[in-house]
Amino acid sequence: MSDDLRRRLIRLYAELGAHTEPECAGNRCPKPLSCCAPMYCDLASDFAREHWGVKLEPGWHPTLPFMGPAGCTVAPHLRPICTAHTCEVNEHGCKRGDEDWTDRYYGLLEEIGRIEEQVLGKRGIWPA
Question: How high is the pLDDT of residue 127?
């Protein structure tokens, strides 16, 4: 992966994380930060190693190896499934009542997917 594309993906994933995190941790979610599960930690670990050459180190949490006191300790680009998740998008395909938010969300996913196609020859996470 070229350094320029790598930096661009990191920035895009950070933007996506900043976009989705308030939905998950804020008052829009009935159970804030409750969608985390050990299998998603495993997926993040595999993704980080396979696509970024990074070995994630577990922390103190007994069941969620990458959970810290303020949420996930893994950078957004190393945990794309988690970074992209919001319950509302998962359930409804959009953020109801906020077309601008939804458009930005899908715009970020599309841009990430295009870069991943260039780098990986396929979209790493996002469907075509």
Answer: 56
Rounded to 5 degrees, what angle do the CA atoms 1, 16, 54 make? 40
Please tell me the distance from the alpha carbon of residue 74 to that of residue 57, in angstroms, as a whole number: 9
Cα(74)–Cα(58) distance, integer angstroms = 10
Residue 68: strand pairing partners: 71
pLDDT surpasses 70 at 126: no
Q: Which sequence spans correspond to the domains of the chain?
A: 3-120
Quote the Cα angle for 44-76-25, to 5°.
100
pLDDT at 128: 45
CA atoms within 13 A on the CB side of 35: 18
CA distance 110 to 113: 5
C-alpha pair distances (Å), 18 with each of 5, 21, 122: 20, 6, 25
| The predicted structure's pLDDT at residue 35 | 83
| pLDDT, tens only, 35-71 | 888 999 999 999 999 989 999 999 898 999 999 888 8
Please choose, from the candidates 70, 77, 35, 37, the residue with its C-alpha nearest in 3D space to the C-alpha of residue 56.
Answer: 77
